[in-house]
Amino acid sequence: MNDKRVLRICRAKGIKSTIKYSSHGCTRQASEPQYLAENVLKREFYADRPNAKWLTDVTEFKYYIGLEVHKLYLSAILDLFDRRIVSFVIRDRNDNALVFETFDKAVAENPDAHPLFHSDRGFQYTNRVFHAKLERAGMTQSMSRVGKCIDNGPMEGFWGILKRERYYGRRFTSREELVKMIEDYIAYYNTGRLQRGLGVLTPFEKHKQYLAA
Question: For the segment 3-62, what is each residue's pLDDT rounded down to a tens digit?
Fold first, then answer.
């Protein structure tokens, strides 16, 4: 169906999309970074095969128990070839363990992968231990420039998609409800959500198509 027809129907029915507003929450450089890498990726958001370029980041969610506000953190790794979420971890604390576990999970599931690994300059990624993990896995580390969120654009874009489609406009009243939403959405994103940029395929369909070829 043509986009313009959909737009006319939406206007007639009063259906409006969730709007993403400009964010000023871009992660700044860690106050005392132990290791810094150059921006090797240089906004080249294209890969010709799976596991050639991985992006990563951490984002925050909130849920409410009565009047109390609680926070939940999602760490994920995205593959630039098929835009699949390679691995993700949800925890109550935004710390080194969150990022390390996400990375270890991705490596365990993709033992032969040696991608360019790109992140912002958050404290977890500038940690010397994390850099050593990357080296042991045979990966090259790349980091966004200070205050340049666009250097990690596709990863930031995934956060926006997830939150617009499942988070904004809702009030989660338990940790379990929020965790289930995130887990269900990532499963849907990987296996059920078609993307024009992938030739109207899901990330997993694009991945399998490459392996079959």
Answer: 899 999 999 999 987 766 555 555 656 778 889 999 999 999 999 999 999 999 999 999
Q: Where are the domains of the chain?
A: 25-212
Q: Which two tokens stand for residue 35?
A: 């290791």
List residues bridging with 141 in a β-sheet.
117
List of long-range contacts for 133-136, beta carbons under 8 Å, 24+ apart: 133/100, 133/103, 133/104, 134/103
**pTM value?**
0.91
For domain 25-212, give the CATH number.
3.30.420.10
> How far is residue 205 from each of residues 1, 72, 196, 198, measured CA to CA in Å?
22, 30, 13, 9
Number of C-beta neighbours around residue 92 at 10 A: 11
Q: Hey, how many other C-beta atoms are within 10 angstroms of the C-beta on 13?
A: 8
Report which of 189, 213, 212, 211 is spatially closest to residue 201, judged by C-alpha positions.
189
